[in-house]
């Protein structure tokens, strides 16, 4: 098989792995790809060199960013698969939840530190890089998924035992990650980048909105439990 064909097949494979992880996390469905039965090596920048045959792509200013984005997206998708499996799959019943959570957070931290400067988000250096912006959103999205449902000590949820309902008001990390996503979403709108953003960014924005919605619901439940007027409720003389 020609090297060009091998590179193309390797790229197609990892695109499928990325999509499988994203769809599994978004829709709560089992992964279709069993990586334990696969031995395809991670693709490399060399796998994208054949794209230079297209003059339009070869001269595009984001050409290098695109290949790096795909490679680091594939690596991030492997962490996402672990998050879904350990937090929401059968492994969530493991008694060693604290260690598992620490390992997931450390994996995300290491992934972030290994990002090349070309796709590391920095608005001051390159505020219109859609690939760096998308990866920053996804990093926060994965932090939310890894930590959601981990109530802080002494702060029981007022909304029951649901994994999602326990999360919004009890984890500072979840709240910070959600705020960061919405800040980045504001940059997308402010700079009119909606049409150039990779589609993987939008589930991250959706999850951040869910976190804020749950936080508002928990605040309302707290007011009701204390017999206070809800923040959105009019005074009696105005009702």
TrEMBL record:
Residues 5-111 form the Xylanolytic transcriptional activator regulatory domain. GO terms for biological process: DNA-templated transcription. Pfam families: Fungal_trans. One of its GO terms (molecular function) is DNA binding. Residues 1-23 form the signal peptide. Keywords: DNA-binding, Nucleus, Signal, Transcription, Transcription regulation, Zinc. PANTHER family: FARA-RELATED, ZN(II)2CYS6 TRANSCRIPTION FACTOR (EUROFUNG). This is Putative acetamidase regulatory protein. It comes from Eutypa lata (strain UCR-EL1) (Grapevine dieback disease fungus). The lineage of its organism: Eukaryota, Fungi, Dikarya, Ascomycota, Pezizomycotina.
């Amino acid at each position: 098989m020609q090297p060009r064909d091998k590179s193309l097949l390797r790229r197609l494979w990892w695109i499928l792995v990325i999509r499988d992880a994203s769809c599994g996390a978004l829709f709560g469905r089992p992964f279709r790809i069993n990586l334990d039965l696969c031995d395809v090596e991670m693709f490399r920048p060399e796998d994208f060199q054949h794209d230079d045959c297209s003059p339009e792509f070869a001269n595009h200013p984001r050409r290098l960013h695109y290949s790096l984005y795909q490679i680091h997206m594939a690596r991030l998708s492997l962490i996402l698969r672990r998050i879904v499996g350990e937090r929401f799959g059968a492994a969530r019943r493991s008694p060693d939840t604290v260690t598992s959570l620490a390992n997931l957070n450390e994996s995300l931290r290491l992934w972030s530190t290994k990002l090349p400067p070309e796709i590391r988000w920095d608005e001051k250096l390159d505020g219109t890089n859609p690939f760096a912006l998308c990866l920053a959103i996804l990093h926060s999205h994965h932090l939310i998924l890894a930590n959601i449902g981990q109530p802080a000590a002494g702060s029981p949820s007022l909304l029951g035992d649901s994994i999602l309902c326990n999360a919004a008001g009890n984890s500072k990390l979840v709240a910070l990650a959600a705020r960061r996503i919405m800040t980045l979403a504001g940059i997308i709108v402010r700079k009119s980048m909606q049409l150039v953003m990779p589609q993987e960014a939008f589930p991250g924005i959706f999850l951040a909105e869910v976190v804020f919605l749950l936080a508002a619901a928990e605040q309302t439940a707290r007011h009701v439990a204390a017999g206070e007027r809800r923040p959105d409720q009019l005074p009696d003389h105005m009702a």
